[in-house]
Every structure is written in structure tokens, then in C-alpha cells.
Design goal:
single chain, alpha/beta, Rossmann fold, 2 domains, five-stranded parallel sheet, 12 helices, 5 strands
Length: about 260
């Protein structure tokens, strides 16, 4: 390939929004020559790799915007530490069929059993599959919505929690809500109903949500929309955090 042709391809690729092709055209032509590729095989190579690079760029950008506290995957989850949890149920969720159906997933259990880890892992998988994701604790969401309501920007702020394909709401039930706050949560749940997925974690059983939201009727209305299309996984087992802390103490004692 002549230098003139290479420069023209780089310029055209840049205008078409194909930066990877613009940067690596010489490498592509070298590989094509070495493999004695035909025209169609060469075109397939270029387009496939450009798409892979674009998908990876979109994935990394999605993670940056997601507010996820970490990017753990299901491969990092120790199912052996929670023998009562059926890995197949969790891995079925990882197929993301519930996201495609705009349904929900709820992870219930005491603190430290790995609910947030699984929720984040599902969100990461959804992001890699091309879905937009956003993570928030329930307390942070309520605090932000209350502030926006006071400032007259509630409709705009609601969009933060309505736009993503997948909204992860962590730590439902750790703090009881006032009725005005519960009403804001209801707005998010009802407006997302059958329009986008919610993944939530809670240390409370659903029968206790009346206490969380300060109103049995409102809690029932929230649960009615949330659970209509919802996969529920209960995790009843020991705490990972307590286990890790005890192991750290043992190591400290051994050193001492």
C-alpha cells in the first residue's frame, strides 16, 4: 500500500468515526499480506475488530458513568461460602433475560452475605451486553431527589433514575423513610414499571417493608409494581465481611 493511499484511508476512517482503523491500517495490511487474505476476508477482519474496539470503549464508558462502587464479577463470588444459595439461580439472572424483559431482580438477606457483589456483577454483565446502568443506594437516591424537589428540579433529577436500562438500588431498608421520601421512591418504581429493570438489595423481608416506608399502603403499592415481574433470591448465610475481619485478626495475632 502506498503512503498516499494509507494517508487517504486514515483521513477517511477518521471522518467516518473509525479511529482504530485510522491508527492501525498498516498493521491490517501487513496481516492481510501475511495471511494472503481475499478482499472479503480483509473487510470482515477490519469491521469485526473495529466493532470489538467500539464495544469495549462503550463498555468502559458505561462503567465510568454507572457510579458502581466496584466492578466485581460473578467469577469472583465465593458460592462455596454460601452453600444454601443455588449458583444456577444467580447464573440464570446473568443471562440477562430479565433485563431484556424489563423485569426486576431482588436480592434479600442479612448484611455481608454478598448481595451487593451479585447486584454489581449483574450490572457489569448488563453493561457489557450494551445496556445502560446506574448504581445508587436508596438513601443517596432519596437524598438527591429531596434536594432536587426543594430546588424545583425534581423532574430533571428523576431522569437520572429513569433513563438507565438497569437501575441498581442498594441497601433498601437500612434506614426507615419519611412518607415524603417514600413517595419519591414510589415515583421512581412506578415510572420504571415495565419500562426498565431494577436490581435491588435489601436486608429486610418484603413483609417488613411497611416499616421501611412508614406506610403499609404505600409499601404495598411499591411491592405490587416491583414484584409483578421480578426474580427474587434470598441469601441466608454467614457474613463475608465478618469472615475476612476474623481472618485478619488471626493473622495479626500470629504476627504478634
Amino acid at each position: 500500500m502506498s503512503e498516499l493511499t494509507g494517508n487517504r484511508i486514515r483521513t477517511t476512517a477518521g471522518k467516518l468515526g473509525l479511529p482504530h482503523l485510522a491508527e492501525t491500517i498498516n498493521d491490517y495490511t501487513r496481516r492481510a499480506d501475511e495471511a494472503k487474505m481475499g478482499y472479503l476476508d480483509f473487510l470482515d477482519l477490519v469491521l469485526s475488530e473495529e466493532l470489538a474496539v467500539r464495544d469495549d470503549r462503550r463498555f468502559r464508558q458505561g462503567l465510568r458513568l454507572s457510579k458502581l462502587p466496584h466492578h466485581k464479577t460473578l467469577d469472583e463470588y465465593d458460592f462455596s461460602f454460601q452453600p444454601e444459595l443455588d449458583p444456577r439461580k444467580v447464573k440464570d439472572l446473568a443471562s440477562l433475560s430479565f433485563v431484556e424483559a424489563k423485569a426486576n431482580a431482588a436480592l434479600l438477606g442479612p448484611p455481608g452475605v454478598g448481595k451487593t457483589h451479585i447486584a454489581v456483577a449483574l450490572a457489569v454483565a448488563a453493561c457489557r451486553a450494551g445496556y445502560s446502568i446506574y448504581f445508587t443506594s436508596l438513601d443517596d437516591m432519596v437524598r438527591n431527589l429531596r434536594a432536587a424537589e426543594t430546588a424545583g428540579r425534581l423532574v430533571n433529577k428523576l431522569g437520572t433514575y429513569l433513563r438507565p436500562s438497569v437501575l441498581v438500588v442498594d441497601e433498601v431498608g437500612y434506614q426507615p423513610l419519611e412518607r415524603a421520601e417514600a413517595n419519591l421512591v414510589f415515583q421512581v418504581i412506578s415510572k420504571r414499571y415495565e419500562k426498565g429493570s431494577i436490581i435491588l438489595t435489601s436486608n429486610k423481608t418484603f413483609s417488613e417493608w411497611g416499616q421501611v416506608f412508614g406506610d403499609e399502603v404505600l409499601a404495598t403499592a411499591i411491592l405490587d409494581r416491583l414484584l409483578h415481574h421480578c426474580e427474587v433470591i434470598s441469601i441466608n448465610g454467614p457474613s463475608y465481611r465478618l469472615k475476612n475481619r476474623l481472618q485478619a485478626i488471626e493473622r495479626e495475632n500470629e504476627v504478634a
